[in-house]
Specification:
Blueprint lengths: L5 H23 L4 H9 L3 E3 L4 E5 L5 E3 H14 L3 E4 L5 E3 L7 H9 L33 H11 L14 E4 L14 E7 L5 E7 L11 E8 L3 H15 L10 H8 L1 H15 L8 H8 L14 H10 L1 H10 E3 L5 E6 L10 E3 H14 L3 E4 L5 E7 L3 H10 L14 E2 L14 H10 L3 H7 L4 E4 L13 E8 L2 E8 L14 E2 L4 E2 L3 H15 L6 H8 L2 H7 L2 H10 L1
Helix pairs in contact: 1-2, 1-4, 3-4, 3-12, 5-9, 6-8, 7-8, 10-11, 14-16, 16-18
């Protein structure tokens, strides 16, 4: 993984000292609350419903075990003993005291971490495939390109005060999009051209929130050397024309929609003409310097002992079930990539206490060269596990409650913190997620249903990415009461054409109704599906109407017709 240079260390430490002085001046009354606000946001510090929340950057989701131990220490020392992994591969601490945050930032800096640009109208944490570098379907390792763009965007003076926050994602898989790339302000699909050179298909204007939009390709086959300069041209266009008078129309997706994809791309090309092949163009030497930080670990020459693994799978049904859901093929013979579920019943999705963080760090040291990855789905990946150690890993993870075999299944719920913490939320998310987990806490049933993604957001800002869940749940406010709107048919595909935004099923439901509504939808799916057909395929074949008629009584349809 990438290691700080002396420049990086100095820059981050100076930022910590600067914020320490700012907080001291705020405590003394020299800075008002309003004057402190932009300064704390620049350091990832929000004021939430009950307390300040600190969002810590985990660039492209990559963590060393020592860093996770530091996060555990922060949780225990300055928070309430736990943190929350978000859909952007960051971690959030929800109970910070502002006057203690400089000490927290210093603790982060000691392990090459920070909270810079995790909030505010700037380029945010760049996200990536959690299986980068090890996936068999990978065209090129995207991590060095992510780091190239992270370094380019950090403290970029021209893009510190954009019209709104700006999110970037990378994907380099031939078969899947494991970073929700098409739903970002800018997304890069890395591939090789006919000459074998690394190029990027650039998407712009994607996003969730109040107006969900799948990004559109604005430049195909961009040579990787131009990633910084083309993005700079794109951001200049956004900075110039993006709305600043209306927060609801300020994201780049609204600008792309207003101009049209073709006109927007032309504007970017015109700006890019001034930057192309200029001093901002990335060089082979710079990429090589960065890529050296992502050299593969010291893999051993291992032959997969298929006979031994087959015996373990046959002798231990629980191990076999976990192996089927949690273990992925690896590009190196004798190794596997393993996802550890943070979604056991009774625990808020993505929440991890300090003791579990330390245990995960120990598992990483023992089984995966001391490295972990945070996934878009709020789980943890150990990317380099020897196949002959899979049974031992499963045994250890099971003791820790980290071996729930539900990866990709209904209870592998993606969920934002919702109204329990967030001041923007219209409704609580975590109790709904827990109620669904408890209602469907039957592994046999989940495996029979097959792959289904269920995403929950507590408000229209869509931090739980409900728009792209096969089943999406959105918290809404109805005259001061919390209700939940259900969508069906969202999906993430390997390209924009196969990425879909869910369709609203109908009127919203009270919290107590939601688990049974989900049960009704699933019952209808089981009744309608063809042999081996996944939920999204059945829905695509039969449409939403059979699910709607199952969920809503006949009188509801009459009311809808009368109100139409």
């Amino acid at each position: 993984m990438y290691h700080y240079t002396e420049f990086d260390r100095r820059m981050v430490n100076e930022r910590v000292a600067q914020f320490r002085d700012q907080v001291a001046r705020w405590q003394s009354g020299a800075l008002s609350e309003e004057e402190l606000r932009p300064l704390r946001l620049q350091n990832g510090l929000y004021v939430q419903r009950h307390a300040p929340m600190l969002r810590v950057a985990i660039p492209y989701g990559l963590l060393a075990s020592r860093q996770l131990r530091a996060l555990a220490h922060i949780a225990r020392t300055w928070d309430r003993g736990y943190g929350h992994f978000s859909t952007r591969q960051n971690i959030q601490f929800n109970w910070m005291k502002i006057e203690q945050v400089p000490d927290v930032l210093a603790a982060l800096a000691a392990v090459q971490m920070h909270a810079i640009q995790t909030s505010g109208n700037c380029v945010r944490n760049i996200t990536c495939d959690p299986f980068a570098g090890v996936a068999r379907d990978e065209i090129v390792d995207p991590r060095p390109y992510c780091e190239l763009m992270r370094q380019w965007s950090t403290f970029h003076p021209e893009f510190s005060f954009l019209p709104r926050k700006f999110k970037i994602a990378f994907s380099a898989s031939a078969t899947e999009d494991r970073a929700a790339t098409a739903m970002h302000d800018v997304g890069f699909y890395l591939r090789r051209n006919a000459a074998g050179e690394v190029v990027a298909d650039v998407l712009a204007g994607g996003g969730m929130g109040r107006t969900p939009v799948v990004g559109s390709i604005v430049r195909a086959g961009l040579p990787w050397h131009h990633l910084p300069t083309y993005t700079e041209a794109l951001l200049r266009v956004y900075n110039r024309y993006g709305r600043r008078d209306n927060i609801y129309k300020a994201r780049i997706k609204m600008l792309v929609r207003a101009l049209g994809v073709s006109n927007f791309a032309s504007e970017v090309d015109e700006e890019f003409a001034f930057l192309e092949n200029g001093p901002g163009t990335a060089t082979d030497a710079e990429l090589a310097r960065i890529a050296a930080g992502f050299a593969p670990p010291r893999y051993r020459s291992l032959e997969a002992d298929c006979a031994a693994l087959a015996r373990q799978l046959a002798a231990h049904p629980g191990f076999a079930r976990w192996h089927g859901r949690s273990v992925r093929p690896h590009r190196v013979a004798g190794y596997a990539a393993v996802t550890l579920s943070l979604k056991r019943a009774g625990v808020a999705p993505g929440d991890v206490d300090g003791a579990t963080m330390v245990a995960l760090a120990q598992l990483a040291d023992r089984f995966s060269f001391g490295e972990l990855r945070v996934t878009h789905e709020q789980n943890i990946v150990l990317a380099d596990v020897a196949q002959h150690e899979l049974f031992d890993l499963w045994s250890a993870a099971r003791v820790l409650g980290l071996a729930t075999p539900n990866i990709g299944l209904l209870t592998d719920i993606v969920c934002c913190p919702g109204g329990d913490f967030c001041a923007l939320a219209n409704a609580k998310s975590i109790p709904i997620a827990q109620a669904i987990q408890e209602r469907f806490d039957d592994i046999d049933y989940l495996h029979d249903l097959g792959e289904i993604s269920l995403n929950i957001s507590g408000c229209i800002n869509s931090c739980g990415h409900h728009h792209v869940g096969n089943i999406g749940i959105l918290g809404v406010d109805k005259q001061g009461a919390e209700f939940y709107q259900v969508t069906l048919g969202g999906a993430l595909g390997p390209d924009p054409a196969r990425t879909a935004i869910g369709t609203v099923l109908g009127r919203a439901f009270a919290a107590a109704e939601v688990p049974e509504v989900i049960a009704t939808i699933l019952d209808r799916y089981v009744a309608l599906r063809a042999p081996g057909e996944l939920f999204v395929d059945t829905l695509a074949r039969v449409g939403i109407a059979p699910f709607k008629s199952a969920v809503y009584p006949a009188q509801d349809h009459l009311v809808e017709l009368q109100n139409a």
